[in-house]
Amino acid sequence: MTEKFSEEVKNKIGLYVYRLIDPRNGETFYVGQGRGNRAFQHVEEATAFGASDDIGSLKVKRIKAIKSAGLRVGYVIHRHDIPAAAIDEVEAALIDAYPGLTNIQGGYGSGAKGPMSVNELEDKYALPALDHPPTEKLVLININNLENDFNEDAIYNQTRMSWRIDEKKASRADYVISVIRGRIVGAFVATQWVSATHENFPKYISLSNEIPGRKGFYGKKAPDDIWEKFVGKRGKRIIIEEMKHIQNPIRYWNID
To answer: Which of 75, 95, 125, 231 has the highest CB neighbour count under 10 A?
Structure first.
């Protein structure tokens, strides 16, 4: 049976933000926004994949696993009749509240305004700023969930995989810049971009977690003068609007 709202309800709820629930463990695995029957369309789209099809996202994998278990995806309409001007902020706040989602993109502005500790807020607004437009070609990658954002090896490994990225553009970059909540914490030279597979990154990507089309890189820390320019001792704030992450974790600078 295909779930859908009655016409009466559909016409009254307006714009809404919803959660998809895995009935096997009660986890929220996806957050989205829409109107009408948008919440139910993910199951319809996942069902369109045949058993032999290449499953293109973690969300589709999760839905197919639920259906294979003979169960149905759960739905929660978290907030409805939301003004259009507020819908992105409401969705972003909910995405931030549920770590480990299958959403490909983070919430609107989450990289700059998402959950932060008091110390992170101090770092974001009190540290020195990168206030002059760089002349270098850059790929800025927004990373999250880093336990120690001063551990250069951890920053490198979080930054280098795995992303939906334009490989041709990324290959033209002079440096890959690591960003956490609007603060630059790392700068690296990518010597080679490769598919983000278990074969290429056996220590970090299992066969079951491979997602077709995602990329990663082999590289090294940027030279000391570049590190000092972009990172310094504790990181530098990004105040140039065109360099800030909005929703996509990838941002290109000076790359056409």
So the answer is: 95
Q: Are 250 and 193 in contact (CB under 8 A)?
A: no
Write out the chain's pLDDT in tens, 256 residues.
458 899 999 989 999 999 999 999 999 999 999 999 999 999 988 877 654 444 557 898 899 999 999 999 999 999 999 999 999 999 999 998 888 888 877 777 665 677 677 777 776 777 899 989 999 999 999 997 677 777 899 999 999 998 999 999 999 999 999 998 888 999 999 999 999 999 999 998 998 888 889 999 999 999 999 999 999 988 999 999 899 887 789 999 999 8
Give the predicted TM-score (pTM) of the model. 0.58
Residue closest to 193 by CA, chosen among 222, 223, 214, 221:
214
Sign for the CA dihedral angle at 233, 187, 217, 29 comes to positive
Can you name the CATH fold of 7-105? GIY-YIG endonuclease (3.40.1440)
